[in-house]
Structures are given as structure tokens and as C-alpha cells.
């Protein structure tokens, strides 16, 4: 970080306040997550300390996965062990939206928009989603390659705190797998497996039950992300649809578009 700053504008004041509160919550509960300090706040704007770094590339996946597992473990240990994925959770006066309900609403909208091809496929996708209800709660912060910076030294730096909700362990890692693939092309299956092993090892640092995300679960989460990210194809660096770049070893599910 240098003496320079970056100012981000928000469409509404509500979104600015939400992003600032998300930043504060993550700084308090998700250590070792590194976020650029907020140096200024005004109507519909936040100013952050500048970070010299580059966006995540496929070769960084294992490193970022390990870091993400540590952040999720810390948040669970400090607060989220009390949360359930089916309901919103209030922590330090800040509300983290639940996981299941909002995703079900979004998936139904994708069906109406044509990204899920049949009612039967939608039902299978919702069944997959509801299977997560009793899993331990981590958080989702839209972990895509443009929201994390790799610096010359130190851990990855997380930027863009616009989104923060509850999610099962492994869900945000699956988002990174999907968005890296949609940006750079197919990832080797063994690279994904190594990243999941690194993530699980970090997540299990104090509580072994947290490091039990299976490859099947990770790829089921990836299928959900593939559907939810489908409308953004051709924007934000997403050049390939998930249906084209998913690992060949991933079972083809009826939930996929």
C-alpha cells in the first residue's frame, strides 16, 4: 500500500453504507483477511488506500484457496458458529443475509430468464441448494479474480466489499474456480483438487469438522455459480460459459444450462 488512494462511487447511499459495514465486519471477524483501509467516506463514495497488485490468475488458485479457508475458519470461530444458512444472521449489529432463500429466488429468476432449460432442471437445482441447509456457515464475498489482488509480498488483499452473505464452507472457493475458468479457460482437474485440499486444511486448523468440503460438494456449488453467473457472460472478463469450461471429470448434472 502506498500514499495513493482509490475512490469508488456507489449508485445509492444504501449501497455505500452496506459496503462500509461489510468492510468493518470482515476486518473484525475474518482475520487474516487483508483489506485496504478506508481513508475517507462521503455521500455515495468510499476512498481506500491504494494497493499495488495484480488480479488472481489460475496459478494462484491453491494459495488463495488456503488463505480463504483460514478466513472462513476465523469467521466461523469468532461469530458464524451461531449462524444457520436458512436465516439472516445479525452480528455486531450488522445483518448478513441468509444463503438458501436468496439463492432460491435468484435461481427461479434464472429459470424465468431462460438460463435453466426446464422446470425439472430447476427442481433438481433447488434440491441441490436445499441440501446445504444444515452445513456449517461461512461467508460469501464474491470471490472472483478481480476482487483479490496478489502483491509482491504478504497475503492476498481482498477488495470490493459490496456483497457479503452467509454461505456454506467451500461456496466462495467454488466461485473462484468458476470465474477463473470463465475468464481464462478450463482449469486442470488436479489443480482444483489441490486447491480444495489446501482450503480444507486451513479451514480445519482448529475444528476438523470445518475441513470436510468434498470435491462433489465443491463442484455442486460450482454448478450453482455457473447458472447464477450466466447472465454476465461477455462482461467483466467472462469469455467462456461454465458449461464449456467445467472440468471434464465433473459429473454432468441435469441442473446445468
Q: Any overview of this molecule?
A:
With 257 residues, this protein is of the alpha+beta class. It has one domain (53-245): Aminoglycoside 3'-phosphotransferase, Chain: A, domain 2. Helices cover 42% and strands 14% of the residues. It is built from eight helices and ten strands. The chain has helices at residues 13-29, 61-78, 100-112, 119-130, 171-184, 189-203, 215-229, 242-245, and strands spanning 5-9, 38-42, 45-49, 54-55, 89-91, 94-96, 137-140, 148-150, 157-158, 165-168. The chain has a three-stranded antiparallel β-sheet with strand order 1-3-2, with helices on one face. A three-stranded antiparallel β-sheet has the order 4-8-9, with no helix packed on it. A hairpin with a 2-residue loop joins strand 2 (38-42) and strand 3 (45-49). Helix 3 runs antiparallel to helix 4 (119-130). The model is unreliable at 250-257 (pLDDT under 50).
Mean of all residue-level pLDDT scores: 94
Q: Give, in spatial order, the strands making up the sheet with the most strands.
A: 1-3-2
CATH superfamily: Aminoglycoside phosphotransferase (APH), C-terminal lobe
How many helices? The count is 8
CATH class wording: Alpha Beta
Task: Work out the strand percent.
Answer: 5-15%
Helix content: 40-55%
Run of helices and strands: EHEEEHEEHHEEEEHHHH
Amino acid at each position: 500500500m502506498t500514499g495513493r488512494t482509490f475512490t469508488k462511487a456507489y449508485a445509492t447511499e444504501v449501497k455505500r453504507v452496506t459496503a462500509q459495514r461489510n468492510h468493518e465486519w470482515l476486518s473484525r471477524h475474518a482475520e487474516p483477511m487483508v483489506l485496504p483501509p478506508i481513508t475517507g467516506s462521503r455521500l455515495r463514495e468510499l476512498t481506500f488506500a491504494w494497493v499495488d497488485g495484480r488480479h488472481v490468475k489460475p496459478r494462484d488458485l491453491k494459495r488463495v484457496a488456503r488463505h480463504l479457508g483460514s478466513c472462513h475458519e476465523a469467521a466461523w470461530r469468532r461469530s458464524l458458529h451461531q449462524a444457520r444458512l436458512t436465516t439472516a444472521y445479525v452480528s455486531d449489529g450488522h445483518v448478513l443475509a441468509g444463503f438458501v432463500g436468496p439463492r432460491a429466488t435468484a435461481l427461479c429468476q434464472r429459470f424465468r430468464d431462460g438460463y435453466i432449460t426446464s422446470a425439472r432442471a430447476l427442481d433438481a437445482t433447488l434440491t441441490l441448494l436445499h441440501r446445504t441447509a444444515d452445513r456449517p456457515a461461512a461467508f460469501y464475498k464474491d470471490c472472483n479474480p478481480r476482487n483479490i489482488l496478489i502483491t509482491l509480498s504478504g497475503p492476498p488483499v481482498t477488495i470490493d466489499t459490496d456483497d457479503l452473505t452467509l454461505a456454506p464452507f467451500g461456496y466462495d472457493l467454488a466461485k473462484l474456480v468458476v470465474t477463473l475458468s470463465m475468464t481464462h479457460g478450463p482449469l486442470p482437474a488436479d489443480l482444483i483438487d489441490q486447491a480444495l485440499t489446501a482450503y480444507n486444511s486451513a479451514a480445519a486448523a482448529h475444528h476438523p469438522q470445518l475441513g470436510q468440503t468434498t470435491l462433489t460438494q465443491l463442484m455442486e456449488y460450482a454448478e450453482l455459480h455457473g447458472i447464477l453467473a450466466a447472465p454476465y457472460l461477455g462482461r467483466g472478463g467472462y469469455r467462456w460459459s461454465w458449461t464449456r469450461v467445467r472440468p471434464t471429470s465433473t459429473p454432468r448434472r441435469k441442473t446445468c444450462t
